């Protein structure tokens, strides 16, 4: 199973589908096939492993990080593929939380296949934490990222904001952003900064996989705005409803949203209870006045202060970032 988990990490984190790995053993316990899911529309991990194993899979064991799917989408059900290959035993880690695809274990058992689940399930779930969250909560997982000075400002008094943190931290955040299915900002950010909102590799070239570039707000986006691009990955949601925006973004196949909007947009998502992770990039610098990192959060007294739990500390160059969980009781 550890090998299957390692294979699963080769899949794209921002893909609409989960990352899945599979190892096939023959009757004697020897590895005869390996596979992983390379992205939507490509063979699932089990099918890829079966193609490598050929007849060697008959009577053998499939070890897979996620319960084999039981539905027909862009590809056929993996439960049926395993049955047709003559697999005698299936061991899976995480049970499938997607109601449209679950039930593979039951189908296999009904056909006489020995099935067991739960092996290294925590690690498998962590591998697909945002995809799992989206299946369980019916909306994408939201990471709110902002940069601020020590005194809490994200822009100077004249509105200039580039750059609060320096290049090493910005590069680290771009790597994290590339793992999200969509980057979401408000119209104010687009009109003020004219961002590209693209994903680039270490050499500064456009990455092969690009996130959706989502702009929320009723103001018009200029035809020449760089965020529009020419790849069809731009969406303007001409309203101000955070919950509605997440439902619309989910319809694009997104399970992880990177919220990079200004203080008012961030505050709106916070007040709606739609922020699941905060990444606060802090520069050892002072402005004294300017635009704060967030607008009114609806907190009027110290008794109502919102205390977050630190899950990670990132140190890049002279800057550092805190990765924070707003809801300490949440497990995913």
UniProtKB/TrEMBL annotation:
Binds 1 zinc ion. Signal peptide: none annotated. Its cofactor is Zn(2+). Pathway: Cofactor biosynthesis; riboflavin biosynthesis; 5-amino-6-(D-ribitylamino)uracil from GTP: step 2/4; Cofactor biosynthesis; riboflavin biosynthesis; 5-amino-6-(D-ribitylamino)uracil from GTP: step 3/4. Transmembrane segments: none annotated. It comes from the Bacteria. The keyword Oxidoreductase applies. It catalyses: 5-amino-6-(5-phospho-D-ribitylamino)uracil + NADP(+) = 5-amino-6-(5-phospho-D-ribosylamino)uracil + NADPH + H(+); 2,5-diamino-6-hydroxy-4-(5-phosphoribosylamino)-pyrimidine + H2O + H(+) = 5-amino-6-(5-phospho-D-ribosylamino)uracil + NH4(+). One of its GO terms (molecular function) is diaminohydroxyphosphoribosylaminopyrimidine deaminase activity. Its EC number is 3.5.4.26, 1.1.1.193. Keywords: Hydrolase, Metal-binding, Multifunctional enzyme, NADP, Oxidoreductase, Riboflavin biosynthesis, Zinc. Gene3D superfamilies: Cytidine Deaminase, domain 2, Dihydrofolate Reductase, subunit A. The keyword Thylakoid does not apply. Residues 1-116 form the CMP/dCMP-type deaminase domain. CDD domains: Riboflavin_deaminase-reductase. SUPFAM superfamilies: Cytidine deaminase-like, Dihydrofolate reductase-like. Converts 2,5-diamino-6-(ribosylamino)-4(3h)-pyrimidinone 5'-phosphate into 5-amino-6-(ribosylamino)-2,4(1h,3h)-pyrimidinedione 5'-phosphate. In the C-terminal section; belongs to the HTP reductase family. NCBIfam families: eubact_ribD. This is Riboflavin biosynthesis protein RibD. The gene is ribD.
């Amino acid at each position: 199973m550890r090998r299957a988990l390692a294979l699963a990490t080769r899949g794209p984190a921002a893909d609409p589908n989960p990352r899945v790995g599979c190892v096939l053993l023959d009757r004697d316990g020897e590895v005869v096939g390996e596979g992983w899911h390379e992205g939507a529309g490509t063979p699932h991990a089990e099918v890829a492993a079966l193609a490598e194993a050929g007849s060697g899979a008959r009577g053998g064991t499939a070890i897979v990080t996620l319960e084999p799917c039981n539905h027909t989408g862009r590809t056929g059900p993996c439960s049926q593929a395993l049955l047709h290959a003559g697999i005698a035993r299936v061991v899976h880690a995480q049970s499938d939380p997607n109601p449209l695809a679950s039930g593979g274990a039951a189908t296999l058992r009904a056909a006489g296949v020995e099935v067991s689940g739960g092996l290294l399930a925590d690690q498998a779930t962590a591998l697909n934490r945002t995809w799992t969250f989206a299946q369980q909560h019916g909306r994408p997982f939201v990471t709110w990222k902002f940069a601020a000075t020590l005194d809490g400002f994200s822009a100077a008094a004249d509105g200039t904001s580039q750059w609060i943190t320096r290049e090493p931290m910005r590069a680290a955040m771009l790597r994290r952003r590339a793992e999200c299915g969509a980057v979401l900002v408000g119209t104010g950010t687009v009109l003020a900064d004219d961002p590209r909102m693209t994903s680039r590799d270490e050499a500064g070239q456009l990455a092969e996989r690009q996130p959706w570039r989502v702009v929320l707000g009723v103001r018009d986006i200029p035809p020449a705005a760089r965020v529009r691009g020419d790849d069809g990955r731009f969406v303007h949601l001409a309203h101000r409803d955070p919950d509605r925006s997440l439902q619309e973004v989910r319809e694009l196949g997104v399970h992880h949203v990177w919220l990079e909007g200004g203080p008012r947009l961030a505050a709106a998502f916070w007040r709606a209870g739609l922020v699941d992770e905060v990444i606060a990039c802090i520069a050892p610098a002072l402005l004294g006045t300017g635009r704060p990192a967030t607008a009114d959060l609806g907190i009027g007294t110290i008794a109502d202060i919102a205390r977050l739990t630190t899950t990670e500390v990132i140190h890049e160059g002279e800057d550092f970032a805190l990765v924070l969980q707003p809801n300490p009781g949440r497990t995913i």
